[in-house]
Write a structure and sequence with these properties.
Layout (H helix, E strand, L loop, with lengths): L7 H5 L9 E2 L10 H17 L3 H18 L7 E4 L2 H10 L9 E5 L4 H9 L6 E5 L8 H7 L4 E5 L13 H10 L3 E5 L11 H4 L3 E5 L11 E5 L44 H17 L1 H21 L4 E2 L11 E4 L3 H9 L3 E2 L1 E3 L2 E4 L7 H15 L4
Parallel strand pairs: 1-11, 3-4, 3-5, 5-6, 6-7
Antiparallel strand pairs: 2-8, 7-8, 9-10, 10-13, 12-13
Helix pairs in contact: 2-9, 3-9, 4-5, 10-12, 11-12
Length: 383
């Protein structure tokens, strides 16, 4: 493969930053595009010209909810709108009951800290959190089989490990969890937008993701999908007025619940962020996630091969089918190396003892090679 199935030059023309920089940091933050800028400007113009137009703005929030649902093969009624994955996870976790013989939470050590922290916070309500270990930048299926039992209420397994890019087999984890009568929560932040993902078919019961990474959006908005039929059993303690059956009844004395996953909505929705999120997700869908997935897998393989050829140590998976676009390179001075590359207009992302390169659908092979050359020079490794 030498080029993607879509017009790469046309895609690149939509991202002004590419004129001056090489962004390889989608595992942390997406670049701004002309489409997302126009979406933000549309909200700002409405606010400036109308002062207030909540009917229009709520319509945009609903459109973003529907766009996320379409992206993951689901229905909008099964999607809640959140401000972050921290909030989405908290809404789900606080809606469960940790009693009746099932109070165990089995979480992978690959969870982003915010997800782990939310589960640990449930221990005061009776939860018993157990961890599935990370070994060599991966999580073994056998360790899930050993950890999940009849006392397990829910399993928390990210699709992609934020530090190394390791992709977990969600369908297999779902099989193990459901075989013990347990639920499955999936944080798809590190992969959604870089590959096709069918939430209902995956076996997951909850799927959460934010928009500032591979979904080409900004901070401040996230979504959570709930398998049909499960939402009605949730009574989240983390809630707000938009989680009510009729938010505009303005009744502080009555706690009822919105239909389906809407009960996971919280306070006043993130309107500006919804404008931007919808534009980013729609762009990805128009290009095609199958095509994007093929190209990001090619770039990910190039990262691994190029890193090894330059004498760099790759942490985590090297097989294309087991990794997200993110490639982690062992680097004791990761933040120093990130700063050195930023001075050369190459943007990468440090996380603990690794430096991460995470190309996306707009990147070229030359971008990857330039990034690896710069990392090798900064680390003093021959290129």
């Amino acid at each position: 493969m030498t080029t993607p199935a879509y017009d790469l030059e046309s895609v690149r023309s939509e991202i002004p930053l590419l004129r001056t920089h090489v962004p390889l940091n989608n595992c942390s933050q997406a670049p701004q595009s002309l489409r997302t800028r126009r979406a933000a400007d549309a909200y700002l113009a409405s606010w400036n010209e109308m002062g207030m137009d909540w009917d229009l703005w709520m319509g945009e929030v609903e459109a973003a909810r529907a766009e996320f649902a379409t992206l993951i093969g689901a229905e909008a009624s099964d999607v809640g709108v959140a401000t972050s994955v921290s909030q989405a996870t908290s809404s789900v976790a606080s809606g469960l009951t940790y009693s009746n013989g099932r109070r165990r939470v089995v979480a992978s050590g690959a969870e982003f800290p915010t997800v782990g922290h939310v589960w640990l916070a449930q221990e005061r309500f009776g939860a018993d959190v157990r961890w599935v270990p990370v070994r060599r930048g991966r999580v073994d299926i056998a360790d899930y089989e050993a950890a999940i039992d009849e006392d397990t209420l829910i399993v928390s397994a990210c699709r992609g490990y934020y530090q190394t890019g390791f992709k977990q087999d969600i369908e297999e984890i779902a099989r193990i969890a459901h075989g013990k009568g347990s639920l499955l929560f999936v944080d798809a932040y590190q992969t959604l937008g870089s590959e096709p993902f069918d939430a209902p078919a995956s076996g997951a019961d909850f799927v959460a993701a934010g928009n500032l990474k591979f979904l080409m959006g900004i901070p401040g908005i996230a979504f959570v999908w709930v398998r049909p039929g499960l939402a009605d059993g949730l009574r989240p303690a983390v809630t707000g007025w938009f989680g009510r059956a009729d938010p505009f009844s303005f009744d502080a004395t009555r706690l009822d619940w919105g239909e389906g996953a809407r009960r996971l909505d919280l306070g006043t929705p993130p309107v500006l962020e919804a404008y931007v999120a919808r534009a980013g997700m729609r762009w990805l869908r128009e290009i095609g996630l199958e095509e994007i997935g093929a190209w990001t897998a090619h770039l990910g393989a190039r990262c691994v091969e190029g890193a090894q050829a330059r004498g760099l140590t790759v942490v985590g998976p090297t097989e294309p089918d087991r990794k997200a676009p993110t490639t982690a390179i062992l680097c004791e001075r990761s933040h120093e190396v990130e700063a050195a590359l930023r001075a050369r207009n190459i943007i990468v992302s440090a996380r603990g003892p690794v430096i991460r390169l995470a190309p996306h659908f707009y990147n070229t092979v030359e971008d990857v090679d330039d990034g690896l050359d710069a990392v090798a020079r900064a680390m003093g490794t021959s290129a």
